[in-house]
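Tokens for chain A. Residues wanted.
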């Protein structure tokens, strides 16, 4: 059944619908964390700590590259597409989606080529069995990019549940089921096999979301006679992409530095702590997914309504972030023990990562406000400085203190960046920045 203008939700939705959507997204966030946690526990049991760490490094690389090739098209989608859906301009939606799908595919091919050449030069062999898992997982990059754009299209149409559910819950459960099945049939699973199973799961979920998008005729695949404003889109998306990628690199750089400077087992142990603390960022993404399609229209209507939407979003962030952060810190030891007896060595690291991730989660809405009010370059500058500081501290601290140095660096730099963004947002609002 196709949508009509009367069936497209907008910012005047009742508070009841907003509350129900929020509860649904909250449930998806909890379910997604449980599913992702089960996947990581399963992998930590099926793979040795070294292989588990390599799997997480490969996953981090694919996630980073899958977003990078879109040049921020997924980040800017709610800002552009929400207005197009409100006008029932589904041809305009298709132009936006089509442009970034093509761009993402072309840049993905370049990333794949560079990765394979680099892998061959690094190991001195073209035999893929001798390459790092990075060279295997890179084939998923164009699929990840396409899936991100389709998901953002659903989110922009205020179908947040269908945008979030397949990736947050379905994706990790599908990976776990397929890897478990392979292990049961073959009597075990190795790193490269687990990586390729994850690639297959990516294709399945992305394809399912595309089918759902087309079934609802969002978009209609009709070309916009007025043409695509690609220049305006890129000017909006590239700074947002830069800020997000730097933030993502900041979140993942610890694993890369540990892979270089620390003992192999510490990479896996730290990955378990990072997975646990990441629940706070899942909650953050859940709240932002609910607020983002409403914030830009509210900003367009004036400062008073923008502040109301922002305040409501901040109350939601505080309500979910603070109690969960306290729970993770108090229960750090039993949480990590689920991964295996040796993983409790990372209790202190989990406690530090909770501090940093909680601070970063609370600054998410301020970041979005600054980006939506023409200050994306300010956000980019803050995140670049933060990444440089974190990388420098990792370089100094990890060789001396191992994974404790990585956690301390992340907690300090994320907290400082979060405070800076909150202060900048507050000043912008006082100056009439909405």
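Reply:
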């Amino acid at each position: 059944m196709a949508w009509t203008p009367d069936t497209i939700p907008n910012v005047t939705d009742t508070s009841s619908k907003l509350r129900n959507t929020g509860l649904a997204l909250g449930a998806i966030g909890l379910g997604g964390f449980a599913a992702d946690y089960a996947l990581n526990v399963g992998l930590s049991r099926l793979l040795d700590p070294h292989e588990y760490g390599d799997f997480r490094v490969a996953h981090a690389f694919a996630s980073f590259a899958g977003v990078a090739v879109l040049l921020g098209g997924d980040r800017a989608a709610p800002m552009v597409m929400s207005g197009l859906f409100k006008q029932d301009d589904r041809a305009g939606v298709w132009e936006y989606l089509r442009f970034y799908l093509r761009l993402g595919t072309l840049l993905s091919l370049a990333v794949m080529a560079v990765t394979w050449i680099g892998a061959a030069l690094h190991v001195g062999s073209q035999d893929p069995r001798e390459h790092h898992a990075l060279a295997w997982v890179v084939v998923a990059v164009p699929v990840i990019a396409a899936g991100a754009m389709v998901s953002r299209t659903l989110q922009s149409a205020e179908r947040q549940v269908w945008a979030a559910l397949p990736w947050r819950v379905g994706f990790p459960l599908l990976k776990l089921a397929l890897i478990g099945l392979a292990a049961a049939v073959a009597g075990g699973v190795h790193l490269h096999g687990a990586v390729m199973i994850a690639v297959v799961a990516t294709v399945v979920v992305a394809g399912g979301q595309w089918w759902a998008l087309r079934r609802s005729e969002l978009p209609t695949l009709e070309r916009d006679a007025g043409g695509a404003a690609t220049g305006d889109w890129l000017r909006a998306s590239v700074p947002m992409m830069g800020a997000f990628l730097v933030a993502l690199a900041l979140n993942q750089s610890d694993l890369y530095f540990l892979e270089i400077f620390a003992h192999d087992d510490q990479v896996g142990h730290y990955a378990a702590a990072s997975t646990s603390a990441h629940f706070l960022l899942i909650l953050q993404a859940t709240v932002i997914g609910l607020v983002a399609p409403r914030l830009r229209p509210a900003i367009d209507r004036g400062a008073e309504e923008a502040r109301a939407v922002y305040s409501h979003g901040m109350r939601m962030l505080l309500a979910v972030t603070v109690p969960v952060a306290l729970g993770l810190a108090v229960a750090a030891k039993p949480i990590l023990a689920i991964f295996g007896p040796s993983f409790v060595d990372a209790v202190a690291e989990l406690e530090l990562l909770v501090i940093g991730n909680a601070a970063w989660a609370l600054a998410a809405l301020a970041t979005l406000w600054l980006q939506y009010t023409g200050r994306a370059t300010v956000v980019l500058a803050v995140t670049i400085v933060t990444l440089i500081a974190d990388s420098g501290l990792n370089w100094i601290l990890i060789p001396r203190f191992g994974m404790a140095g990585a956690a301390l660096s992340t907690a300090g730099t994320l907290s400082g960046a979060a405070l800076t963004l909150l202060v900048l947002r507050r000043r912008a609002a006082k100056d009439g920045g909405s």
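Confidence is low (pLDDT under 50) at residues 1-14. Residues 90-123 form the longest helix (34 residues).
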